[in-house]
């Protein structure tokens, strides 16, 4: 039976009726309203129309590109701003209103990004009866995201993920209305990003210099695919720790470790005492900033092991000169401040892991802190917002460890604002993200490990908390949505015993 509650994530406000209208793929078309700022030729919406036609009519094998005028049903799009050739950003509105009545659906949004979200909702409203006929019910929706930042992190260093797997993830993200792809692109094991400025970083630091890298063309392809789905691409180049792969292609970047008074032949974190370090970082981030258009950049700063720094006489001498004594957190603070300043000059907003906040003052009020550690994560959120800094919550949404799909409820029952604080503090919580670290994840198990558990987090970050507080009510809706994902070619795990009308046909 039809129910608007089959839409995932649940819209903010909606009314629906049992009155339904048949849809004929041969008599269905998308169009722009006369007052719309965007018109035919708008890359984001023109491509979206082509993309959503087979999602709405998955059994139809006719010409997808044929749109028929003056036929029984059309979807009229009106947007207030012509941002067709831009990139989504942290201020982009995703608000939309959708009205479905006899013969037409009216979709109104402030931006093309809101229109894309509305098209996703409309695609989920369409259903088939037992005879394969398509229908949509009379519906009114006013919708917008609860949080502006709704991300998924993929780690492409510990296991290389083919571009095809990343693009498939972006498709699934759009179905759940995620809007940020956090690309943890490099780390200790490998450096797959192919830099124009420093080509040795990947030629010597990747698992394989030809097959396990992301070329500039690959990166552009990912960014373009994401943009057309209203998804920002946020790169992370984590330092000073997690940089062993960097040292293979950039000499004198990492700190030489000592055993007594002699070098041990091993290397630790980035060397924070050499001017050449910051010259290198400035050139690298200048390139990264030109390649990735988003105004945010993730600088990492987590899990820095001080053992090597402590063993190095040049580092210890530098600390005495700077008046740091033996407090190596001050040295890390010195390093991170320099890196934040480098990216600030490039007009980038820095995101750092919570370690940077925990161990020293974050001086830039523009910086964003990502909370990831176990324990009382709401306590940490409260501390960061009390300091006047923005927060992204990741702690409760680590999905990299295997777990049965039925544990989706633990990711659903997360309340990001359930801490004691002022309304101003709570406004500083800009959202959250699902983290899929790569120790035990590659292209063979990425999709079923992510979905549909990530969709539980997606509804928490999009929908009204009061309307989505019940796990029992959410369960049948998520089951239905999981079947939608499967029909769209996403290998989402089953939630429990049962079946989908259209089982996964892939191999």
Globally, the shape reads elongated
Task: Classify the oligomer.
Answer: single chain
Number of domains: 2
Low-confidence stretches: 63-70
CATH class descriptor of the largest domain:
Alpha Beta
Helical segment count = 17
CATH homologous superfamily title of the largest domain:
Glycosidases
Q: What's the mean pLDDT score?
A: 94
SS-derived structural category: alpha/beta
How much helical structure, as a percent, in the residues?
A: 25-40%
Number of strand elements:
17
Tell me the CATH architecture of the largest domain: Alpha-Beta Barrel
How is the largest sheet built, in terms of strand order? 8-9-10-13-14-15-16-17
Specify Rg, calculated over alpha carbons.
24 Å
A few lines on this structure:
This protein is α/β, with parallel strands linked by helices.
Task: Describe the overall structure.
- This protein has about 500 residues and is α/β, with parallel strands linked by helices.
- It folds into two domains: about 5-145, Chitobiase, domain 2; about 150-485, Glycosidases (TIM Barrel).
- The protein is about 35% helix and about 20% strand.
- The protein contains 17 helices and 17 strands.
- The chain has helices at about 45-55, 110-125, 165-175, 200-205, 215-225, 245-250, 275-290, 305-310, 315-320, 330-345, 355-360, 375-385, 410, 425, 445-450, 455-460, 470-485, and strands at about 15-25, 30, 75-80, 95-100, 105-110, 125-130, 135-145, 150-155, 180-185, 230-240, 255-260, 260-270, 295-300, 350-355, 370, 390-395, 430-435.
- The strands form three sheets. The protein has an eight-stranded parallel beta barrel with strand order 8-9-10-13-14-15-16-17, surrounded by five helices. Strands 1, 2, 3, 4, 5, 6 and 7 form a seven-stranded mixed beta sheet that branches.
- Strand 14 (about 350-355), helix 11 and strand 15 (about 370) form a beta-alpha-beta unit.
- Helix 3 (about 165-175) packs parallel to helix 5 (about 215-225) and helix 7 (about 275-290) packs across helix 10.
- The chain is elongated.
- The chain starts with 12 loop residues before the first strand and ends in a 20-residue tail after the last helix.
- Residues about 65-70 have low confidence and may be disordered.
């Amino acid at each position: 039976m039809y129910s608007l509650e089959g839409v995932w994530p649940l819209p903010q406000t909606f009314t629906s009726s049992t009155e339904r209208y048949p849809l004929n793929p041969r008599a269905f078309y998308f169009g722009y309203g006369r007052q719309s700022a965007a018109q035919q030729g708008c890359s984001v919406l023109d491509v979206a129309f082509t993309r959503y036609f087979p999602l709405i009519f998955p059994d139809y094998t006719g010409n997808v590109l044929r749109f028929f005028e003056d036929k029984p049903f059309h979807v009229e799009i009106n947007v207030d701003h012509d941002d067709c050739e831009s990139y989504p950003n942290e201020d982009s509105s995703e608000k939309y209103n959708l009205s479905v009545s006899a013969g037409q659906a009216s979709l109104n949004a402030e931006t093309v990004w809101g229109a894309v979200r509305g098209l996703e909702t409309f695609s989920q409203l369409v259903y088939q009866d037992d005879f394969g006929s398509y229908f949509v019910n009379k519906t009114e929706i006013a919708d917008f995201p609860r949080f502006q930042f709704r991300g998924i992190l993929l780690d492409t260093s510990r296991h290389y993920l083919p571009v095809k797997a990343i693009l498939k993830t972006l498709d699934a993200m759009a179905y759940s209305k995620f809007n940020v792809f956090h690309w943890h692109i490099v780390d200790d094991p490998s450096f797959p990003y192919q830099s124009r400025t420093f080509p040795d970083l990947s030629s010597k630091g990747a698992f394989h210099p030809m097959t396990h890298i992301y070329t500039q063309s690959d990166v552009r392809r990912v960014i373009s695919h994401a943009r057309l789905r209203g998804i920002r691409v946020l790169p992370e180049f984590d330092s000073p720790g997690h940089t062993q792969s960097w040292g293979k292609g950039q000499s004198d970047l990492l700190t030489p470790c000592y055993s007594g008074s002699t070098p041990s032949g091993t290397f630790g974190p980035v060397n924070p005492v050499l001017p050449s370090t910051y010259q290198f970082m400035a050139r690298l981030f200048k390139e990264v900033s030109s390649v990735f258009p988003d105004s945010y950049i993730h600088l990492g700063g987590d899990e820095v092991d001080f053992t090597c720094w402590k063993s190095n006489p040049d580092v210890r001498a530098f600390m005495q000169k700077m008046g740091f004594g033996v407090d190596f957190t001050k040295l890390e603070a010195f390093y991170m401040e320099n890196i934040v300043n480098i990216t600030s000059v490039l007009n980038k907003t820095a995101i750092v892991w919570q370690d940077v906040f925990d161990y020293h003052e974050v001086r830039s009020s523009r910086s964003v802190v990502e909370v990831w550690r176990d324990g009382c994560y709401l306590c940490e959120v409260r501390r960061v917002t009390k300091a006047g800094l923005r927060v992204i919550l990741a702690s409760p949404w680590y999905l990299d460890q295997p777990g049965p799909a039925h544990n989706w409820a633990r990711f659903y029952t997360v309340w990001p604002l359930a801490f004691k604080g002022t309304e101003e503090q709570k406004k500083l919580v800009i959202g959250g993200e699902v983290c899929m670290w790569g120790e035990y994840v590659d292209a063979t198990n990425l999709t079923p490990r992510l979905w549909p558990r990530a969709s539980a987090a997606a509804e928490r970050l999009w929908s009204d908390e009061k309307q989505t507080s019940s796990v029992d009510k959410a369960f049948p809706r998520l089951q239905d949505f999981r079947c939608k994902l499967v029909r769209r070619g996403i290998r989402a795990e089953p939630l429990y015993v049962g079946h989908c009308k259209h089982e996964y046909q892939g191999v």
